[in-house]
């Protein structure tokens, strides 16, 4: 089936014929006789359709979608078994620059609509669509969301981005993911390339454990929405826009992993007491972590001036970590390390493993990265239990052409 993201499965080999058996005594003959008569010593014939319908559906669900549809033509009794599949994944074009993008996208949309129209909507576990979607095709998005909500899908993955174009956006109403009773069965939600308007009145995502937003425009009360997702354990936000300050409310007391990547925010503030893994990649901004920190692993990749210095001194909540990854991606000809204080304000008493990546931009006559690297040793005094230090230095030289 075009557009379905499934693997092919080779059919099983036919049963071999015993050369010692006389003609008429082979398996085919035995099956023929058993269909009309069963002796006392004969085993009854077995047919898949003799199984309960729900068992047949489970067996059929183990096949890839393409194979399940093909198998349905073997018997009229199997014709609709594929409609009980629990995992539906579709993949379409992701780059607008390709010549046949519009054709392939139309095929993907047609396939999705055809499948969800015939599906039983029973027992859906995962509903995934990875296909760039034009704004004028947003009517299909509404149909897909209604299907996912009514079928009580546990995992919803909607990545509608064109990776080479950012103008195409689709408005997605979070309320549409709720059922008629205003609740949701979604445990994992991925949204990409959409516009959402969250607010505190959306209270149905009570069992949501993982939320990933990529290239999503957010307008509204995002903090109020998160406060109603008390079961959330993993929150990842990548290149999202629309927020000035990112505040993670104290209701997320089960949050264990927080990733913020490429967000143009002015401040990050969170109250997640059980947070064990924190990742931040972007401009230098104040990062405030309230409460008792249980952080064990942190990744801080500040870009811009004084990025490396800030990674060690401006995020005191990372002091308890055991694993630390830091990176500076924009060093000027003047060493940032020369501007570091004598030592950090606190001690990395539990730090065991550290990875430091330094990117040096310099002209050949100004290259002093060897001195910069040596000055990094100042932080080792603040980590008395350090066991592993991995240092990666990338030097970018600008050579003037005459």
Account of the 3D structure:
The strands form 3 sheets. This protein has a 12-stranded parallel β-sheet. Strands 4-6-8 form a 3-stranded parallel β-sheet, with no helix packed on it. It has a 3-stranded parallel β-sheet with strand order 10-12-14. The chain is elongated and about 75 Å long. The chain has helices spanning 27-36, 53-61, 65-71, 101-118, 138-150, 222-227, 307-313, 369-375; strands at 87-91, 126-130, 155-159, 170-171, 188-192, 194-196, 210-214, 217-218, 234-238, 245-248, 257-261, 267-270, 277-283, 287-289, 297-303, 323-331, 353-362, 388-397. Helix 4 (101-118) runs parallel beside helix 5 (138-150). The chain is built from 8 helices and 18 strands. Among the domains are: 50-85; 318-402, no CATH class. Strand 2 (126-130), helix 5 (138-150) and strand 3 (155-159) form a beta-alpha-beta unit. Residues 115-393 form the At1g61320/AtMIF1 LRR domain. Pfam families: F-box, LRR_At1g61320_AtMIF1.
Secondary-structure map:
Layout: H1 27-36, H2 53-61, H3 65-71, E1 87-91, H4 101-118, E2 126-130, H5 138-150, E3 155-159, E4 170-171, E5 188-192, E6 194-196, E7 210-214, E8 217-218, H6 222-227, E9 234-238, E10 245-248, E11 257-261, E12 267-270, E13 277-283, E14 287-289, E15 297-303, H7 307-313, E16 323-331, E17 353-362, H8 369-375, E18 388-397
Parallel strand pairs: 1-2, 2-3, 3-5, 4-6, 5-7, 6-8, 7-9, 9-11, 10-12, 11-13, 12-14, 13-15, 15-16, 16-17, 17-18
Helix pairs in contact: 4-5
